[in-house]
Design goal:
The complex is a heterotrimer of chains A (507), B (361) and C (310). With 507 residues, chain A is α/β, with parallel strands linked by helices. Chain A has helices at residues 46-53, 76-81, 99-104, 115-129, 144-157, 174-189, 201-207, 230-238, 297-303, 327-332, 355-363, 374-387, 404-417, 434-449, 461-467, 490-497; strands at residues 6-17, 20-31, 35-39, 61-66, 69-71, 84-87, 162-166, 193-198, 210-215, 218-224, 256-266, 272-282, 286-290, 312-317, 320-321, 335-339, 422-426, 453-457, 470-475, 478-484. Chain A has a six-stranded mixed beta sheet with strand order 6-7-8-3-9-10, with helices on both faces. In chain A, helix 11 (355-363) crosses helix 12 (374-387), helix 11 (355-363) runs parallel beside helix 13 (404-417) and helix 12 (374-387) crosses helix 13. The longest helix of chain B has 30 residues, at 113-142. Chain B is built from 14 helices and four strands. With 361 residues, chain B is mostly helical. Chain B folds into two domains: 1-40 and 318-361, no CATH class; 63-303, no CATH class. With 310 residues, chain C is an all-alpha fold. Helix content of chain C is 69%, strand content 1%. Chain C has 14 helices and two strands. A two-stranded antiparallel sheet of chain C has the order 1-2. The chains are: A alpha/beta (507), B mainly alpha (361), C mainly alpha (310). Chains B and C meet through strand 1, helix 6, helix 11 and helix 13 of B and helix 3, helix 4, helix 11, helix 13 and helix 14 of C.
Chain lengths: 507, 361, 310
């Protein structure tokens, strides 16, 4: 490995939020022309550290050096002046403007915007870094991959030569991910540095030159990619040896409890989001649903809970067709849906209410009369908190104050407590640390033993392949294949996620 | 950067009350300066205000009479606000409630008093409820912005009452003066302890709304809907019906105020019957954080303020508008002080000193 | 009834609405809903009148009217931008303040009127060339200077919003403040500037009422026009060019009741007074029936911006 000069150095960086220490005297350095991965679980401090480098947060103490000179970064503008640009998970783009307009935002362009001149400059940059962006397209018309490329172009245009990518592949297809990696390598060639935040081991191993592992606010180790392996990295991330395998228990029976036939749905913009979906579910099986974000999983979940209008099709549960019935009716028949959206609190829970009221959300129908019964709900809340080891100051605490993982536990706990016969759970382990993940898999397996049919939607192929009996792949609103989880390969699943249909379905 | 703002974690009730009181005091100081500017002694004026509002039994009664519509309207408005339905239309709902009640008062005065008043009560409720259900329907069905519609409906209701007052309901016995006839004794609310029994209605409604919002299923649904539409649907709540129900209740309660004011206070229908209560109630609802106990308190404070102000108008020759100015100043300070309950201001002293030095050069 | 004179009067009636609407459009584009329009108009009306009466200078009157509106807006801006207070209640408080302020200051101005010399400044001026077009010339191009100022302001604002870099930045702030912040746009500065500018325009709208339209001082000279302006902002899709059409349409509706007196249409004047309000409701419902991104409010309207969210 050629000796490369250090471009970025962060020394002894400490940052507190209230009583929580997000970063504890962290040290971090990046060389010129290097792709450096920042690896760690949620809450390790990766995003916080990078937010300080990019000017979103200000460190309580510590120093930052760019190219040997100390800099004080107190805003995104300062960061850009120093050459640092960050691409966030949530794009900072204005939907109703075009690419060009978004790039020119905040730029000193004189009184009137000279679009032609800027376009030429941009075309040159696009050539140099091999970025493909349609400058006149409105952002609301773009795909996630296009938006990301736009963000990168925007950041480079403003002079960034140190690029921070925060979980960039979370919403990309395997194909788009490869495209991104090509861009990253190109930047490396141009002597830029790329910092790549991730918790996806395989990608880190593929693209990074060096890897820094963070855990609970501290820098644990910085290693050359060549000299380490996933097992070691995971252990460093988690703090002790971890068994990566998920235990799968065999499916229970051959009884079909749930059938979906020719389910089609159309969204507000008259675009077909579900196209002729058909599948069966057996008692005591876990049917996984794989697919890139936005392929129709959300709409499918909602439709199967009565929350999304169906154009045609049947939803047959225990012999009864529920299509067209109200959400209340779905609930009373024993179908439970727990959907964990990106913002966690968007659908299943009320952020400002406490655990008791959130439990009440599902229970209040059952009590007689016009008043709500909080006492039984409170007892239930205590029970769930104990069973799932939820960390909370009390059941009267507004749940928005709980950490992401605990919020998810509340949601799952409530759904499971209603003893559903069909459980639809989407992204249940999103953003959770590995110990909690394993615990949740255990809980799901327990339900499975009881004969509950589980529809398990996830983005992480490892858990899908490890936990499920069969895996259904959905792409662009259609089912492209249903395969046996034991025999499936990642490549196979990846191709199906992109739309290639499998010839043989596993029944 | 010189200043930074950080979200504070939960703040204790005690601190919240302290900050609120602090803002009131700050407002009084600023208004005091304004009074001094007018060559008046602020302490004299404030004491006179208190005297004017609670200085005698009669005055206390007047203050309570003023507080009653504030209390009830804010209760009604709070139900809608809990659902994040911005019902700015309380003025119109009160007017329509007054209109409906007045219809019966003017045309059915032969009925026995108790029956007539009961009918007028329900008529008032229905008048306000109808006026509330219209914007609710548009919002529930097509997502139309309720703030503007309820506002516009205030004006429609006002023009309607003006029309009646100058047109078909104009009293021929009023010497050409555009006025609606006074109600017969039959249609007037009786008094209890010197105040018309609207106060009993206020007490009952306060208790009702408290239990409705905090303990009832419908109240729970309204709260959930206000927090998150998606979650409400998810929980199986019928959104359309909930919005309509809440607004029927909200508008209806405001309509009752119209009945009370027409029957108990004015004993007729006039276009000024609301006295701006519909708008003031919004402020009170916000001040009281939609909690009935606090809204009652805030209403009483406002009543003291308004009564006191009209007293000092004659005592010191200050324009009646001074009350509004004082009201506004208090509001500004309370609004501003809310900042300190939610956020913490961190001042980066070294950076601030550096900046001032640079600016000084 | 439908004569040139009617349309011309509609334009005049619409000018205060136009200024207030333009002011509120700018404010809302920055992400802030300021319901204090009525208050700011009243402040501008009373200060404009007072200064005009005292100095006999129309220019000073207009200047101070604008400043008065801006000062009212400053209170709102400080509350909602720096202190991140609730925007709806802050705007309502401003309306109460403005009403009280105007009533208070205006007490000594009741029934007063300006000198002929003062009023001469606001005489009708015909624009050479354009003013000679049959029908349209008389309707649009034979007005006082304040009206022309209204036309110019609307066009300038339109150009500003859609053709300049700063206008682009403003639109971003109202849509996605996080994106604007990431683009290093000084959000606080922009918000303050535009909210104050909005207030100044509202103040001018009020001044038109007290200096030209009425033009004696009366209590409640705005008569709810500020609220119509808030509705007009939605009606014109937050677009200054469309606001011109909307303001004149509503100006026409405002005066139509009076015009119909004594004609075959024997409906009480008061019923007709309802027309602008009912029209607004109808239009709002229709707009909400067809949802489009073009006519949508700025996405971040009435949400306080806050960088460090945890």
């Amino acid at each position: 490995m050629a000796d490369r000069s250090i471009y970025v150095e962060m020394k002894d960086i400490t940052k507190r939020f209230g009583s929580v220490i997000a970063t504890d005297h962290m040290n971090f350095e990046v060389a010129k022309g290097e792709i450096h991965a920042l690896l760690g679980e949620n809450g390790a401090g990766k995003s916080t550290l990078m937010n300080m480098l990019s000017g979103i947060y200000i460190p309580d103490s510590g120093h930052i050096f760019i190219d040997g000179k100390e800099v004080r970064i107190t805003s995104p503008r300062d960061a850009l002046k120093a050459g640092v640009g960050m691409i966030h998970q949530h794009f900072k783009l204005v939907d109703v403007l075009t690419s060009l307009e978004n790039i020119l935002l905040g730029y000193k362009t004189g009184l009137f915007v000279r679009k032609k001149e800027q376009k030429i400059k941009l075309q040159q940059l696009m050539e140099k870094f091999q970025l493909d962006v349609d400058l006149d397209k409105y952002v609301y018309e773009m795909s996630v991959g296009e938006k990301q490329t736009l963000e990168i172009l925007k950041t480079i245009y403003r002079g960034a030569r140190i690029l921070i990518l925060d979980e960039p592949t979370a919403v990309l297809t395997p194909q788009e991910t490869n495209k991104l990696f090509k861009i990253m390598r190109r930047m490396k060639e141009q002597s830029c540095s790329v910092i790549f935040i991730s918790h996806k081991m395989n990608e880190v191993m593929e693209i990074a030159d060096r890897i820094t592992v963070l855990r609970k606010g501290k820098t644990i180790a910085t290693l050359e990619k060549e000299s380490t392996n996933p097992q070691e990295l995971t252990e460093l991330m988690v703090g002790r040896p971890v068994d990566l395998s998920i235990k799968r228990i065999p499916a229970l029976s051959d009884n079909i409890v749930f059938q979906v036939r020719n389910l089609s749905a159309v969204n507000e913009e008259k675009v077909e989001v579900l196209k002729n979906i058909s599948f069966d579910m057996y008692e005591g099986e876990i049917l996984g649903v794989a697919g890139i974000a936005g392929s129709g999983q959300k709409e499918l979940c909602e439709a199967l809970a009565g929350l999304y209008p169906i154009k045609q099709g049947e939803i047959i549960f225990k012999g009864e067709n529920l299509a067209g019935k109200s959400p209340k009716e779905f609930i009373t028949r024993g179908i439970s849906m727990s959907f964990i959206p990106e913002d966690r609190l968007g659908m299943g829970l009320v952020a400002n209410m406490d655990i008791v009221d959130n439990i009440l959300l599902k229970q209040y129908h059952h009590s007689k009369g016009i008043m709500v019964q909080r006492k039984p709900a409170a007892a239930k809340a205590e029970e769930i908190v104990k069973k799932l080891e939820i960390q909370t100051p009390g059941i009267k605490e507004p749940i928005k104050n709980l950490s992401g993982g605990n919020i998810q536990k509340v949601l799952l706990g409530r759904e499971l407590d209603s003893h559903p016969e069909l459980l639809i759970t989407a992204y249940p382990v999103r953003g959770l640390d590995i110990n909690t993940c394993l615990k949740i898999y255990d809980i799901l397996n327990e339900e499975k033993k009881r004969g509950v049919a589980i529809l398990y939607i996830a983005e992480d192929l490892d858990s899908l392949m490890g936990l499920c009996d069969r895996i259904m792949v959905i792409s662009n609103g259609e089912i492209t294949g249903i395969v046996d989880a034991r025999k499936a390969t990642k490549e196979q699943l990846g191709l199906m996620m992109l739309g290639n249909k499998e010839v043989h379905h596993a029944v | 950067m010189q200043f930074r703002i950080v979200i504070k974690s939960e703040i204790g009730k005690k601190k919240r009350v302290l900050i609120f009181l602090g803002s009131i005091i700050a407002a009084l100081i600023v208004s005091g300066l304004f009074l001094a500017f007018l060559n008046l002694n602020p302490f004299q004026v404030y004491i006179a205000m208190l005297q004017g509002s609670v200085g005698s039994v009669y005055r206390i009664e007047q203050t309570i009479i003023y507080a009653i519509p504030l209390i009830i309207t804010s209760l009604g408005v709070a139900i809608a606000f809990k659902m994040k339905f911005w019902n700015i239309g309380a003025e119109g709902q009160i007017l329509m409630g007054a209109f409906m009640a007045s219809y019966f008062a003017l045309n059915y005065s032969f009925l026995p008093r108790f029956i007539l008043l009961l009918i007028m009560f329900f008529a008032g409720f229905i008048g306000g409820a109808v006026w509330g259900i219209i914007p609710a329907f548009f919002r529930a069905k097509w997502g139309t912005n309720e703030t503007i519609i309820t506002l516009m409906m205030n004006y429609v209701a006002l023009k309607w009452v003006v029309y009646l007052q100058y047109g078909p309901w104009k009293d021929p016995n009023a010497f050409g003066f555009p006025k609606i006839a006074n109600f017969a004794k039959n249609a007037v609310l009786p008094e209890l302890f010197g105040v018309h029994i609207g106060w009993i209605i206020a007490v009952l409604l306060t208790i009702f709304v408290y239990f409705f919002l905090n303990r009832s299923k419908k109240g729970f649904e309204i709260a959930v809907l206000g927090e998150s539409v998606n979650t409400a649907r998810y929980a199986g709540i019928n959104i359309f019906r909930t919005i309509i129900f809440a607004m029927v209740l909200s508008g209806g309660i405001c309509g009752i105020v119209g009945f009370i004011e027409a029957s108990g206070v004015e004993q007729t229908l006039t276009k000024d019957i609301t006295g701006g209560v519909g708008y003031t109630a919004i402020i009170i609802a916000w001040l009281g954080a939609l909690k009935p106990q606090w809204m009652v308190l805030a209403s009483l404070l406002f009543a003291i303020l308004i009564q006191g102000s009209s007293y000092i108008q004659s005592a010191f020759g200050i324009s009646a508008y001074s009350a509004q100015l004082l009201e506004a100043i208090v509001l500004f300070f309370v609004l501003g002080s809310d900042f300190f309950t939610r956020y913490k201001l961190i001042i980066d002293w070294p950076s601030l000193l550096r900046r001032t030095k640079e600016n000084g050069k | 009834m439908i004569t040139v004179a009617f349309f011309k009067a509609a334009i005049i009636a619409g000018i205060p609405l136009l200024f207030a609407t333009l002011g509120e459009i700018i404010t809302e584009k920055s992400g802030h809903l300021n319901l204090g329009v009525e208050g700011m108009m009243l402040m501008g009306a009373v200060i404009g009148f007072q200064v005009g009466y005292t100095t006999n200078s129309p220019l000073l009157a207009l200047l101070f009217a604008a400043i008065a509106g801006a000062l009212g807006a400053l209170i709102y801006a400080f509350l909602t931008v720096s202190l991140r207070a609730n925007q709806v209640v802050s705007g309502l408080a401003l309306t109460i303040f403005g009403t009280g302020f105007a009533g208070f200051v205006g007490k000594s101005l009741m029934g007063m009127k300006m000198t002929d010399q003062f009023n001469y400044f606001f005489r009708d001026l015909k624009i050479p060339g354009l003013g000679d077009i049959p029908y349209l010339g008389e309707i649009f191009f034979n007005h006082d200077i304040f009206v022309y100022l209204g036309y110019v302001t609307a066009i300038v604002l339109g150009l500003y919003l859609y053709n300049t870099g700063k206008g682009l930045n403003l639109r971003a702030i109202g849509e996605n403040p996080a994106a604007a912040d990431a683009a290093s746009i000084p959000i606080t500065k922009y918000k303050y500037l535009h909210i104050l500018l909005g207030g100044a325009l509202c103040g001018l709208g009020g001044a038109y009422l007290s200096l030209v339209y009425v033009p004696v001082w009366q209590e409640n000279i705005t008569a709810g026009r500020g609220w119509i302006a808030v509705a007009l902002v939605i009606f014109s899709g937050w677009n200054p060019y469309k606001a011109i059409a909307g303001a004149f349409l509503f100006g026409g509706l405002d005066i139509i009741g009076f015009r119909l007196q004594g004609t075959a249409i024997a409906i009480s004047q008061y019923i007709f007074d309802m027309a602008p309000y009912v029209a607004t409701i109808v239009i709002l419902v229709l707009v909400s029936l067809r949802k489009s991104k073009k006519n949508a409010p700025p996405k971040a309207l009435s949400e306080p911006y806050f960088r460090e969210e945890r």
